[in-house]
Amino acid sequence: MASAHSQATRGRGIKTDKPVQALPARQGPRNEVAAEVARYLGALSILLVGVIHAQQYYDAYFSFVPTIGTLFLLSFVGSGVVGVTLIAPVRRLGRSLGDLILVLAALGAIGIALGSLASLLVSEYRPLFGFMESGYRLAIVLTLVFDSLATVFLGVFVLIVARARRHHRASTVHPARAGTSP
């Protein structure tokens, strides 16, 4: 019994003795747009994490809590640095150097967001540096949301950039293979 594919291609000049090969993945404008959207949304999210920590440090008097207050201030400063770097037009320095700077900033932001998220979750259930959170007030909920969003958006950004770099490297290393099939 013949398969539906072989019946459909019989008599049409289509050879079915070769296995079907997948088309190579192209890094098109859609991936670049997705990367840029993820980059800017991740930058906004990590900046909001920093703003929340600054508000808690100055207005909620966390500046008086030993160690935790210092960590809130460091989170604010670090979030500001990586957030501004992610928004800055660093690709004007060249695509390779710009991508390197952006990926390092994104990884730094992911580290800040995951550190903040883990610390917050730990402090909900047991003391962390002598401090324990109680309840989910608005600042905690917003921090949980923006830490998660920053991690997801910037993780997507890093993956797209890494995939584009790998694709670009493969096409420049073996340019003769680009149009041939085995």
Descriptive tags:
elongated, mainly alpha, 68% helix, single chain, 182 residues
Query: What class would the helix/strand composition place it in?
Result: mainly alpha
For the record, the count of structural domains works out to 1
Main sheet makeup: none
* Molecular shape: elongated
What does this protein structure show overall?
- The structure is a single chain.
- By secondary structure, the protein is mostly helical.
- It has one domain.
- It is built from five helices and no strands.
- α2 packs antiparallel against α5, α3 packs antiparallel against α4 and α4 runs antiparallel to α5.
- It is elongated and about 65 Å long.
- The mean pLDDT is 83.
Question: What's the gist of this structure?
Answer:
68% of the residues lie in helices and 0% in strands. With 182 residues, it is mainly alpha-helical. The chain has one domain.
